[in-house]
Design brief:
The complex is a heterodimer of chains A (182) and B (999). Chain A is an alpha+beta fold. Chain A contains four helices and eleven strands, in the order E-E-E-H-E-E-E-H-E-E-H-E-E-E-H. Chain A has two domains: 88 residues, Probable tRNA modification gtpase trme, domain 1 (Gyrase A, domain 2, 2-Layer Sandwich); 80 residues, Heterotetrameric sarcosine oxidase (Alpha-Beta Plaits, 2-Layer Sandwich), CATH 3.30.70.1520. In chain A, a hairpin with a 2-residue loop joins strand 4 and strand 5. Among the domains of chain B are: 111 residues, 2Fe-2S iron-sulphur cluster binding domain, sarcosine oxidase, alpha subunit, N-terminal domain (Ubiquitin-like (UB roll), Roll); 197 residues, 3-Layer(bba) Sandwich (FAD/NAD(P)-binding domain), CATH 3.50.50.60; 123 residues, FAD/NAD(P)-binding domain, CATH 3.50.50; 65 residues, BFD-like [2Fe-2S]-binding domain (Arc Repressor Mutant, subunit A); 92 residues, Alpha-Beta Plaits (2-Layer Sandwich), CATH 3.30.70.1400; 104 residues, Elongation Factor Tu (Ef-tu), domain 3 (Beta Barrel). Classes of the chains: A alpha+beta (182), B alpha+beta (999).
Chain lengths: 182, 999
């Protein structure tokens, strides 16, 4: 990990967050048992395509037509997988712990949209991307996904092996100053 | 001489002087100047030398089309060559140097080329330097490289930073002249998201210079009120110093924003490269004036007519006291009128048309300016400056009628719409006879995903040169782009103009002595005579002529020369201009910096490096890294100043004798689950995976559908419908994608899910005779005995304080446990192993020790023994190809005659007779030579090492009929001329019975 876990610039504060519980769940997203166990684990309904229902550390993100990312506190993962296994026993699904395969960052500040806009080919106009939405995309040269925790805060997830790159990239983009577009 | 006028100059602020230097000379300009206007204000007419003949060159244009005024700008870490003086804004402390001259701009040795120009015609280099062949590399090329070239390459690292930005809009308007403003206004009023960009620092383009009335207002007044209206629209963004560089498929447009170039070196990004996604793109890019082809049209002081009046109106700079205007159209009369009004002398307007009578002509005549109709310029007199022009009849051959002393010439051959951005993505052009110009063909635009044109040319760029037509067209374009019905746009009032007359050569019957002095391409020194020669030599295609003569191939990409050049070609070929066509317009519109393209990707961010959880420990403990995929893996851990080779040998011996640790986290780990997972894996692997019992491991091979070995690894059966597939380090993402491809595209109804969990785990191989003792010492309660966990089985449990999955698999031939723990605990686990292993002599080892140990054991490595042409059968791996299965990927391919050919080279071990190491990549020779006179071969080395275990060189290789030739000797020539002889042996050099790994 980069030497500092947090770097501040006028545009935004970039913070490397601690481990987040994450489960990749593949299955029939319309199945009532799957919906029920997801609701029980996170309190959230299955999000629509391109959306996430994340409150603080807990929620669901839509990854593909047959894949969800379940987010919850790190310590709750083994029990959550056991619950999924019990609930979906006999149906075709896959639930695996990917918590340690990921790194999570927070980009918070008035310039957060532009920090992300420098790195990701995504329409970040406030009318087009707002809390509740979720995007899998490219960030610089790596795969990443993000959503908005609130109107000025992005949470970004990428693979663990490129955490240093992601942190430095976000930091450099924040430090370079505003574009004046959003 | 050129000078600053006492008054005027709408861009400059005379209260703010700016000091700068040119070729070391200290000069002064004003805030708002370009480098070009500041140089001209200081009577610096000569700004460079041409590329081939080193002819003196002066500024010819006032904008992005300038071919001559290129300078080296800045110093040291801020140095940049080939910067255009007409688009470089002046700042305090700017340092510029002219290019392409030696020893000085005023006196240039290379100008001797100019006197030899008769001997340096089109294609000279091709003709001259083709024989003898060897001369090119050793004599001609070094000489040409030394004398050619424009700016110097920077020698220092670039101190500036750059960035990218992504924006999505409904309508992108490129060009902030009155057409762009009108288009943006129309689209903005419709409520859609609009981004309007302008490459210069100023809005309104050339309109304020020529000052038409718009909506009853003066041009500048209308521009300001429109800007204000746009700024008040929340759905519209406007930006200056931002150029539309290239238009690509799907409405993707690259824009280049220059943030600090106008103020000099400063913190923060210098350039920002925008990738804009637009539903519709409006190109309101204006038009470029064409030069006229007359003898001496390159002498400093000869300038485009509109540029000359731009310098007067915008910068208060006069290029000369006495200016002759030469034209084939009415517009150039505006220059004469501006000059006369500014108190300067215009001795004559030379008009190639026989009887001009338009409103502007009448106005010029009323000002007392002499107009010579039906005349042309026979030649320009002067070397480094214009001293006079000689007049002739345009219809004749150039007999001089009169000489007129003057110090500047304003020329206009008509205007060409800037169609570059329209054309980048396939927009087609149509020839406009009346305007003698190519203009966008609205029926053949570049089309988007909806089948509709996504680029709309607007205003002057669309071929509407008259202000009123341009505004109407641009406003309508804005409405169409926004998807609303056309309404009435702004109206304009400007003097009516009479038709221009195409003039491609002046005079039209000019002799060769004149044609040799008529420049088409100023930067690359291409003349009318060169294009005519190319046509005579059989070059009919404009693309071939371009490459043969280098017309339009300089850094300006022929902005001034293309149309004039192809008109000459068309005349020489006796074919109409539209049938000759244009060359291809390619992005970027003008050169953009390499730094902007790289953006943030430099230094530590040049490329993402993948790091395992133990990477930091490796860095701190002497690891020498090697790239494996995007990972960096330790090659070896050097200790106490030992050599890398010594470290590798120590690591091998220690692992064989005691215990070693390998960071195996990078190996791919794919979870495959579902009722059809067994069936799926049976198709992907050559061997049977569906029958693998839960708790066991099996080594598997994957082939492409063409049968070639693609990846290998150990598969573990986790439960009834779950398997874990290990892949190679570099293969993890590729094999994951391969699996998804088959599942999504071919076997979409099979019930299988795949997840890539490579990075979820840190995996450590604990290897060597003391491996079990080490793990048992950590405790945790797992039974790791041979009986409880035999070779090729796995178990979940606790090792010390860690949740672990332990695989009894070995890539070294030793007793070996690969232990996977959650990645977050990887470093702690690694350190726990090192601490507990101290008493057993534990040492980490790197990839080279891994390679040697697997080679000693005869294990193949994907990428060493395979190269995309190798099938498992070549490698003695037929045992891993199931005979029981109906099908697997590659099965049919394995039955093709070429694959079953008994003469395919096959894997064997190679033992050198003298104990030395066969060089990597060496070929085994056989008798005789092939048709090319090359020695015949019978095999090649795939892996070769000094084996510390055996104390001799060992290798694996593919040899003709190798497995049938055990004990035979083969010869491997080395590059030093000697050979090494090796005996064909079994590839398993170490522990062939497998007692150690099974132990």
């Amino acid at each position: 990990m980069a030497e500092a876990m947090q770097k501040t610039s006028p545009m935004a504060v970039v913070t490397a967050l601690g481990p987040r519980g994450m489960i990749t769940l593949r299955g029939d997203l319309a199945a009532s048992k799957l919906k029920a166990v997801c609701k029980a684990l996170t309190g959230a309904d299955i999000p629509a395509a391109g959306h996430a229902t994340v409150v603080k550390e807990t929620g669901l993100a839509w990854m593909s037509p047959d894949e969800l990312l379940i987010m919850l506190p790190h310590a709750e993962v083994p029990a959550a997988i056991a619950k999924i296994d019990a609930a979906l026993k006999g149906s075709h699904y896959l639930a695996v712990d990917v918590s340690d395969a990921r790194a999570v960052f927070r980009v918070c500040g008035s310039g957060a949209r532009e920090v992300m806009g420098k790195l990701c080919p995504v329409d970040l106009h406030p009318d087009q991307f707002a809390p509740g939405q979720f995007r899998r995309t490219r960030m610089g040269q790596i795969a990443a996904a993000f959503w908005m925790r609130d109107a000025a805060t992005f949470e970004v997830v990428c693979f663990r092996s490129v955490a240093d790159y992601a942190f430095d990239l976000l930091t450099v983009s924040a430090k370079a100053g505003p574009v004046g577009y959003y | 001489m050129s000078t600053r006028l006492a008054t005027g100059g709408r861009f400059i602020d005379r209260s703010q002087p700016r000091a700068f230097s040119f070729n070391g000379k200290r000069l002064r300009g004003y805030a708002g100047d370009t480098l070009a206007s500041a140089l001209l204000a200081n009577d610096q007419m000569l700004v460079g030398r041409s590329f081939k003949y080193h002819r003196p060159r002066g500024v010819v244009a006032a904008g992005a089309e300038e071919p001559n005024g290129l300078v080296n700008l800045g110093k040291g870490q801020h140095f940049e060559p080939n910067q255009r003086v007409t688009t470089t804004e002046l700042f305090d402390g700017l340092e510029a140097e002219s290019q392409n001259h030696w020893p000085s701009l005023e006196f240039d040795v290379g100008a001797v080329n100019a006197r030899l120009s008769r001997f340096l015609p089109a294609g000279f280099y091709y003709k001259m330097f083709i024989h003898p062949r060897s001369f090119w590399k050793h004599i001609y090329e070094p000489f040409i490289r030394a004398s050619a070239g424009l700016g110097k390459a920077p020698k220092s690292r670039d101190a500036d930073t750059y960035e990218h930005f992504h924006a999505h809009v409904d309508v992108l308007v490129i060009g902030g002249g009155i057409s762009g403003l009108a288009a943006a206004l129309a689209a903005g009023r419709a409520g859609v998201r609009v981004l309007l960009i302008e490459q210069t620092a100023h809005w309104g383009g050339r309109a304020p210079v020529d000052d038409p009335q718009i909506n009853g207002l003066g041009a500048e007044e209308w521009i300001n009120s429109t800007l204000q209206a746009l700024e008040e629209m929340p759905n519209v963004q406007i930006r200056t110093r931002m150029m539309g560089a290239g238009v690509y498929d799907h409405g993707s447009v690259l824009c280049y924003e220059q943030l600090t170039d106008h103020i000099g070196p400063k913190d923060g990004p210098r350039h920002r490269l925008w990738q804009v996604r637009a539903d519709r793109v409006i190109t309101a890019t204006g038009a470029i004036e064409r030069p006229l082809s007359f003898a001496g049209n390159d002498v400093p002081g000869v300038m485009l007519a509109a540029a000359l009046r731009d310098f007067v109106v915008n910068f208060g700079v006069s290029v000369g006291d006495r200016t002759v205007v030469v034209t084939n159209n009415d517009d150039a009369y505006r220059t004469a009128i501006v000059l006369k009004t500014a108190g300067l002398d215009v001795p004559c307007i030379v008009d190639a048309r026989p009887a001009p009578t338009g409103e502007l002509v009448a106005e010029a005549r009323a000002l007392g300016i002499r107009v010579e109709a039906g005349k042309g310029i026979a030649k320009v007199k002067g070397g480094k400056r214009v001293t006079a022009v000689a007049l002739c009849a345009q219809a004749g051959e150039g007999a001089v009628l009169e000489e007129i002393p003057c110090d500047a010439v304003a020329m206009s051959g008509g205007w060409s719409p800037v169609v570059h951005l329209w054309s980048h993505c396939g927009g087609k052009l149509t020839w406009d006879e009346a305007g003698a110009m190519f203009r966008p063909d609205p029926d053949r635009p570049p089309t988007g995903a909806d089948g509709e044109g996504f680029v709309l040319a607007a205003g002057t760029a669309n071929g509407f040169l008259a202000t009123s037509e341009a505004l109407a067209d641009a406003y309508a374009a804005g409405q169409i782009a926004a998807g609303i019905k056309k309404g009435k746009g702004p109206s304009a009032l400007a003097p009516a103009e009479e038709p221009m007359a195409p003039v491609w050569m002046m005079p039209q019957g000019a002799a060769i002595s004149l044609r040799e002095k008529m420049w088409l391409d100023y930067q690359n020194d291409v003349k009318v005579s060169d294009v005519q020669l190319a046509a005579r030599e059989g070059y009919e295609s404009v693309e071939h002529t371009k490459r043969y003569t280098t017309l339009g191939m300089a850094t300006d990409q022929g902005k001034l020369s293309n149309i004039n050049g192809l008109a000459i070609l068309s005349d020489s070929l006796g074919r109409p201009i539209p049938s000759v066509g244009t060359t291809t317009f390619r992005p970027p519109y003008t050169p953009i910096s390499m730094g902007a393209i790289a953006g943030a990707a430099r230094d530590g961010l040049f490329q993402p490096i993948r790091k395992t959880p133990m990477h930091g420990w490796h860095e701190a403990n002497g690891a020498e890294f090697e790239p494996v995929g995007q990972w960096r893996r330790p090659y070896a851990f050097r200790r106490n100043g030992e050599s890398t080779e010594a470290a590798v040998h120590r690591e091998v011996k220690n692992t064989r004798d005691a215990v070693g640790l390998l960071d195996a986290s990078t190996l791919g780990k794919l979870i495959v689950k579902g009722p059809d997972a067994g069936k799926f894996l049976d198709m992907l692997y050559t061997n049977m995976m569906s029958t693998l019992p839960v708790g066991k491991c099996r080594y598997g091979l994957m082939c492409s559908e063409n049968g070639f070995l693609s990846d290998d690894g150990v598969v573990a059966r986790i439960d009834e419908d779950t398997w874990l597939c290990h892949t190679t380090t570099g293969g993890a993402d590729r094999i994951h994608a391969w699996m998804e491809d088959w599942l999504q595209c071919e076997w979409w109804n099979w019930k299988v899910y795949v997840a890539n969990v490579t990075e979820q785990y840190a995996q450590v191989a604990v290897v060597g005779p003391k491996a079990r003792m080490l793990l048992e010492k950590l405790g945790g309660g797992m039974d790791l005995s041979k009986e409880a966990l035999p070779f090729m089985q796995w178990a979940d449990g606790r090792i010390g304080d860690f949740d672990a999955r332990v695989y009894r698999i070995s890539f070294s031939g030793e007793l070996s446990y690969e232990v996977a723990v959650p990645a977050g605990q990887g470093l702690a686990f690694w350190e726990a192993l090192l601490a507990a292993g101290e008493e057993f002599g534990v040492m980490p080892y790197g990839t080279e020790a891994l390679h040697i140990m697997r080679a000693e054991k005869g294990f193949i490595m994907i990428g060493d023994e395979t190269d995309g042409t190798i099938i498992p059968q070549d490698l003695g791996l037929s045992w891993a190809i199931s005979k029981k299965k109906d099908d697997y990927l590659g099965k049919r391919a394995h039955q093709r005659p070429h694959m079953t050919d008994p003469n395919r080279w096959k894997l064997v071990g190679l033992e050198t007779t003298d104990g030395s190491v066969i060089p990597d990549g060496a070929y085994a020779v056989s008798e005789g030579v092939n048709d090319n006179g090359q020695r015949n071969t019978q095999g090649r080395v795939t892996s070769t090492y000094m084996s510390p275990t055996l104390g001799r060189g060992i290798a694996m290789g593919l040899i003709l009929n190798g497995p049938d030739r055990m004990g035979e000797l083969v010869e491997f020539p080395k590059i030093d001329g000697t050979s090494v002889t090796a005996k064909i042996v079994s590839p398993v050099f170490y522990d062939p019975e497998g007692e150690k790994q099974n132990g």
